[in-house]
Amino acid sequence: MMTNNDKLTPIIVGIMGGSASGKTTFAAALAEKLSEYTPITLNQDSYFRDWSEFTPEEREKIITANHPDAVQWDVLIADVEKLRSNSPIETPAPGTRAASRGDEKKVTQPSCVVIVEGHLIYWNEQLRDLIDIKLFLEVDAHERVLRRMQRDVGTRSANLEAAIKWYRRDVLPNYPIYTEPCKQYADIIIPYLNENHIALQTIAAGIHARLITQNG
Predict the structure, then answer these.
(1) Model pTM greater than 0.85?
(2) Does domain 4-214 have CATH number 3.40.50.300?
(3) How far is CA 193 from each of CA 10, 62, 104, 184, rounded to the nearest angstrom?
(4) SS3 38
(5) CA pair distance 199, 205, nearest whole angstrom
(6) Angle, helices 23-33/197-214, rounded to nearest 10 degrees
(7) Would you call 187 helix, strand, or coil by DSSP?
(8) What is the C-alpha to C-alpha distance for residues 191 and 183, in angstroms, rounded to an integer?
(9) What value does the mean pLDDT of the chain take?
(10) What is the pLDDT of residue 2?
């Protein structure tokens, strides 16, 4: 059986979709299916900038999580390039929200399967060109809103009024401009209203076959 130690040429898998479309869930399930390769998952949210160059008053007006300005693209792209060349990466990067909140520093060793997930990842052409297999999770907009409210209020203990205000301010205006149009770049669009086991199995089998083929 092939293992990560065989120094296989890495395959970069992208998982994109709207807010609360199930990207993290699908990424975790895919990683589990491909566990023999010890996959790495990079979450775009870990590369959100910390906006520290702005005063709290300015930050309150301009901060976003759904516009491309939110992401430190140079750092995310550099990390994907390092992993593609079988080099380790160190996270979190300075200037990111993850670093500012004190997330523990760690070194991630390369893997032959790298999963990159986030709701803006195909918007950036340079990052898009590094991704070998591009997936897009398709979920009805009403269902995504319900999932997000349930997550923010139930799991993250957010105030419902504040969660709705943020959704109206940041998600609604940006989704149709920076996320939804990126479906055009997807190799496969996956319906994900419910867990799609057939799609998961098919994608995992395809990656496994591709690794065997390209590494002979």
Answers:
(1) yes
(2) yes
(3) 30, 32, 34, 20
(4) coil
(5) 10
(6) 50
(7) coil
(8) 12
(9) 93
(10) 47
Spatial distance between the Cα atoms of 127 and 212, rounded to a whole number of angstroms: 25
| Contact present, 67 and 176 (Cβ < 8 Å) | no
Domain boundaries, the chain: 4-214
SS3 at position 65: coil
Q: What are the tens digits of pLDDT across the range 24-82? A: 999 999 999 999 999 999 999 999 999 999 998 998 889 999 999 999 999 999 999 99
Q: How confident is the model at residue 1 (pLDDT cuts 50, 70, 90)?
A: very low
3-state secondary structure of 127: helix
43 Cβ contact list (under 8 Å, min separation 6): 24, 117, 118
Q: Which of 123, 137, 117, 115 is nearest to 182 (CA)?
A: 123
What is the rounded radius of gyration, in angstroms, for the C-alpha atoms of the chain? 18
Secondary structure (3-state) at 206: helix
Return the pLDDT at 20.
95
> How would you label 69-99 residue by residue, b for 16+ Cβ within 10 Å and e otherwise?
ebbbbebbbebbeebbeeeebebbbebbbbb
What burial class does residue 60 get, using C-beta atoms within 10 Å of its C-beta: 0-12 exposed, 13-18 middle, 19+ buried? exposed
* DSSP type of residue 10: P
